[in-house]
Write a structure and sequence with these properties.
Layout (H helix, E strand, L loop, with lengths): L5 H7 L10 H10 L4 E7 L5 E8 L2 E8 L5 E2 L4 E2 L4 E2 H15 L7 E3 L6 E7 L4 H8 L1 H6 L2 E7 L8 H10 L4 H9 L13 H10 L7 E3 L5 E3 L4 H13 L1
Helix pairs in contact: 6-7
């Protein structure tokens, strides 16, 4: 049922180029990281420099490389004329595409009656700040903040945290199971067809390195925990820009 994989997310993303990278660029990347692959190549405003996305064990990373493949640059490209971070814009686009792949049947939602803001949160059952965030889920909802959960078991796919995520997903009442698990209640293990591995891989592609990790509607990543009032203030300020 769940066929979303890290490879397919990279291939179907509309923001990635369908063209194959130039041989020189591929060779240059191969010299540095033999197991990595270039999945996208696009021009940049700088003559002779291309933007590439490299797929590795950590997901998709944005780099810049000279068109002869000799010089690889890791860092953010800033358009000084309008103060726009072009690298973050690209990464936000990737995150937005990644989370959009998971419809309402492939996530666990906690929505208010009137939703002003919608966040996708990569979470881990055993993460302390994830539990703190969920303990205040009613507070977020009261402020019009809706949260969609995707699982990101930090210990990996073969871990107790992964098994707990599967148990929550396979429960008859996923919301109740999520709340109980994050309260420290040990649930009886359950197994079923589930998207947990796909969600974990999506988190890697989105650049998640810790939990909770909040992805905003525009694809921007907010790592860490913020209490309801502080999060609303941050969202209001960002929307005003």
């Amino acid at each position: 049922m769940y066929k979303i994989t890290l490879t397919s997310l990279l291939l179907v993303s509309t923001i990635l180029s369908a063209e194959q990278p130039a041989d020189e660029i591929k060779a240059g990347v191969k010299n540095l990281a033999p197991t990595a692959s270039v999945t996208s190549i696009e021009d940049t405003p700088i003559k002779g420099v291309s933007e590439i996305i490299i797929s590795s064990g950590r997901g998709g990373e944005v780099y810049y490389i000279s068109n002869d493949g000799k010089y690889l640059m890791n860092g953010n490209m800033i358009d000084t004329s309008n103060r726009e971070d072009l690298t973050e814009k690209k990464k936000s686009g990737i995150r937005k595409e990644v989370v959009a792949k998971f419809g309402k049947q492939e996530r666990i939602d906690f929505f208010p009656k009137e939703m002003k803001h919608h966040l996708t949160v990569f979470t881990d059952i055993d993460c302390g700040y994830c539990r703190k965030l969920h303990d205040q889920i009613d507070g977020y909802n009261e402020l019009g903040i809706g949260i969609s959960y995707l699982f990101y078991p930090r210990a990996g796919l073969k871990s107790p945290a992964f098994d707990k995520a599967v148990t929550v997903w396979c429960s008859d009442n996923q919301q109740e199971a999520m709340t109980n698990a994050k309260s420290g209640i040990n649930l009886e293990n359950k197994m079923c067809d589930n998207p947990i591995a796909d969600q974990y891989n999506a988190g890697q592609l989105a650049g998640v390195t810790g939990t909770p990790a909040m992805v905003l509607e525009n694809g921007m990543l907010l790592p860490g925990y913020l209490p309801p009032a502080a999060l609303l203030q941050r969202l209001t300020t960002m929307m005003a820009k």
